[in-house]
Each structure stands twice: as structure tokens, then as C-alpha cells.
Amino acid sequence: MLDATRLRTPCLFDKIVSADEAATLITDGMNVGVSGFTPSGYPKKTTLALAKAIKAGKKCRINIWSGASVGPEIEETLAEVGGISGRMPYYAASNKTLSRQINTGSVTYIDQHLSHFAQQIDYGFYGDVDVAIVEAAAINADGSIVLGSGVGNTPMLVKHAKKIIVEVNTSIPLTLEGMHDIYICSKPPERTEIPIYHVGDRIGSPYVSCGLDRITCIVESDIVDHVRNLSAPDDTSKKIAANLVDFLEHEQRHGCLPQQMLPLQSCVGSIANAVLMGLAESKFDNLTMYSEILQDSVFKLIKCGKVTQASGCAFTPSPTVWEMYKEDPELYRNRIVLRPLDISNNPEVIRRLGVISMNTPLEFDIYGQANSTHVMGNRMMNGIGGSGDYMRNGYLTIFSTPSTAKGGNISSVVPMVSHADHTEHDTMVFITEQGVADIRGLSPLKGEMAAHAYEYQTDIEKGKRTVIGVNKFADNKAVKTNDVITADLSVAERQIARVNEMKAHRDQHAVDASLKALKEAANGESNLMPYLIDAVKTYATLGEICGVLREVFGEYQQGGNLF
Q1: Do 292 and 313 meet the contact criterion of CB atoms below 8 Å apart?
Q2: 435 strand-pairing partners
Q3: What are the residue numbers of the active site?
Q4: Global pTM?
Q5: Matching CATH number, 235-315+317-438, of 3.30.420.10, 3.40.1080.10, 3.30.70.1450, 1.20.58.110
Q6: 515-560: pLDDT as tens digits
Q7: How many helical (H) and strand (E) elements, i.e. helices and strands, does the chain have?
């Protein structure tokens, strides 16, 4: 039940409505901004009510804008009823239905570096924020909003929203009040420096500025964030952590890092959490973090005294660690600062503080490129998130990942990534359980990994290897008509005949079964390679295989509207 501790002026009680009533404010085609970051601090009641209304017949497809991924009460529930038209600036693979709709093209997804989105909203690049739905711990007498554990892009969404729905969630501990530092940058040319010189510096307000007159309605909620317990560190992640510690110690010994460790950044996920937790047994003390998301490891490192200050845009403790927080909230409130996403991920601040950036890719290659988003080059698994913000601007940039995936069946280290989110210009160090690859100061031409390519190119340039159109007959005018090789068109006819002959004698039932299995795998999250091999073994043609994949993934279409 909402009381004066949550609604801090009487007139706010007059704005309380049901979730069903609040959902009527959202209509077809709207841009709807939601608070939170990852499954932390996001609204739940209103979107659940909207999904119910759509299922009952309401025509409504909306564009969802957020900080990053949010919980299933938004993304999965609305996706299941066809309620999402567009999504920015991030989504996570855990939201299966939305992931499938993005990859088939029924939902338009615009992937972005997370530091960019708030200012693009501010500039009006994507149109109006029709409705903002904000989860709050409380609302002050002046209308300013006390947020929960996730800030994300909430301040900018509130700034520009035509209508604001506030979900006051009674499950949010009021002890979070005071953790937040809300700061909105001015627009150029009036923009000045962001005056953060130390991790714990506070430059803004503990509250999101709003105003009583701008709050359209209030919905009471008690639904907790959909956060799961993380996997316990396994032997592989422990080895990665040990290699990371050894590397950082090596850097200190050689004067590349100060004795007082620079601020750390870590991405989200079980592997990243386990690797960061490896610092608990290291010699490093008085650690600080300037990061995007703060997970279990940060709370545990604070409790054991390793981390003295942590800054982020949200924290997502598991249920177990939430209970640990509640035992001594002051310990964490005095050491954690929660900022807007465009401040936590701001290149200016990352560069000034000298952040050591640590992120986890899907794969990386021998040229120093990393893929954070796409499986097999065309299936988007999740957005790029903030990894680019930190990897391009950190003092030291580290990618860490197990050397294999899918139970050891797939290598995470490949000759060339199928999709490059981070080029060799953005990366410095790669760490797996196998060891450390430091590529600083190495050019592809000097490295053993590119020796063959270098040798090949040199042979071409010296004339030892002839390539028509490159180092010989490069000028079309020098080529005589009788030097041009033309194809015998009968070759195509013979090939067509061979294919038809093969089709006539193959087991069509086996072909159909293999293609069906491939389609089912493509619609899910399975490794497609075994299914592709099975299809080839039944003598399915390349055209038939590509046709199945085209049905699932669609085709690239140049141009088009944003949403």
C-alpha cells in the first residue's frame, strides 16, 4: 500500500490509477520510453496490462526505448502479442521471442553504442517521446523522482516525455535513496566538461527532476526485478581470472600501470562476474570501478574491502546478494554512485579516469578483431551495448572469454570474425584460460598470424605472382579482344543436367527431413553447423539450404524507414 513514505505530498494520491487505466494512455505507433537498465529498475505493471489489452483485441504496436535490455514483463510479454514495432538501443538474447522477431525482420532494431542514445533523444533524432514509464521508489513533494537500482536513460526520457506514468514499487528499499547522481549535459555549443575527476565525485542531484504537473498518473507495483542467480565460477573462468591478475601484476612491475590500480570496468554476465571476482584473492587493494553495470562480484568485493568506490548506471544483484545488501545497506550506499547511462559510458570521463575496460566477446580473430553481437555473421544475438564506449576509450582494453563455446564444440578464436564490432584499432589484450595475447605495438604485417597474407601481397607487388587486373592487364585498354576468355555456355547446361540427375536419384524424404530439421534449428538457438552438414549429406542443394535460411532470417533490404 502506498503511503506518505512513498508519495510525499497529498496531491499525488489523487493521481493513482490502475495499471489497466494507465495502459490506455499508450496507443498504436507511439514511442514509449521505459526506465531501467538490464533487468533492473524497469516498469512492469503497465506493460503487462498493455499486453493483456492487445491480446484482448487492442490494436497497438509501439517503439520501445530504454537504457539497455529490460525484463520479460516488457520485452517478452509485448513481443508475444505482437506489440513491439521497433526497439532501441539494445536487447539481450535472453528475450527469446523478441530476438526471433528482430532476426526475422518483424521488429526493427537499431543497435547503438549506449553512450550515444540519450543525446540523440535530446537532439530529437528519432522523434518525440510520447510516453515515459518510470519505476520509482518514491516521489518527492516537488515531483522529483527517487529511482530504484537502475538509472539508464531515465532522466532524458523524463525530460522529453509528453506523458509520464510513474510506477511506485513498494518492493524497492528506500535505503537506495541518495545513491543516485543525476546529471544532464547541455547541448553544444554550451556543453562544458563533465567534472568527474574521481570515481566517487558527485556532480548532480539525487533525484530525477520532473514536476508535479508533468506526472500524468501513478500506478502501484510490488513486482520485483527479474534477476537470476549467476552461475558459480568454473575452472575455466578461474583460469581466466588468474591470467588477468598475472597480466595486471606484470603491467605494474613494468611501470605500465600505477601501483594504485586504475578504475575498472566490467561487462555483464556470469563469465565477467567470475573473472572480476578473481580479484578478491589478488594483492590489489583499494580498487575502484567506473562501469556500466554492477553485478554480484562488486558487492562481494565491497564487503570484503577490496573495492572502496563503485560507479555505474545500474546494479543487478542476484536474489542472494540482494539479501546481503539488506543486511548492511549503508555499507553499499556510501560506496556506490548510480549515474545516467550517457555519463557512466561517456568517452570523456572514461578517458580522463584511465579506465581499464574488461569485456566479453562472442569470438575474436587472429587479426585482433572482436565480434560482440552476431552469430555466424547474420544472426543477431544481442546488441553491442556499452562495450564499444569502453573499448575505444579505455586506458587499457581487455577482452576475456573461454577459448571454446558450446561444450568445446566451437572455437571462440577464429581466423576471421564473421562480424566485426571491434576492429584491431579498439583492442589491446585478449585473455582466455589458455593465456594472454597482448597485441599492443603489433601490426598485422609484423605478426606471425598475418605472415602468409603479407608474403602473398609482397609477391604480387614484386611481380612474382601474377594477378590479372591487379599487376597485369590492369589497364583495360591494353587488353585485346582476342585475349578475353569467354565461357562456354554449354557448361551451364551440363551443370543443370547434372543437378537434375542427382535430384532424380536422391532420397527426397531424407532431403525434406534434413531441411525441416535445419529450419527448426535456425528458429531456435542451436548450432546450425551439424544441421547444415546433415543436409549436405542427403544431397540437398545450396539453393535449397539457402532458401530455408532465407525463410527464417529474411534478406537484407537496403534503405527503408527507421521504424
Answers
A1: yes
A2: 432
A3: 292
A4: 0.79
A5: 3.40.1080.10
A6: 999 999 999 888 888 898 889 999 999 889 989 988 888 875 555 4
A7: 19, 25
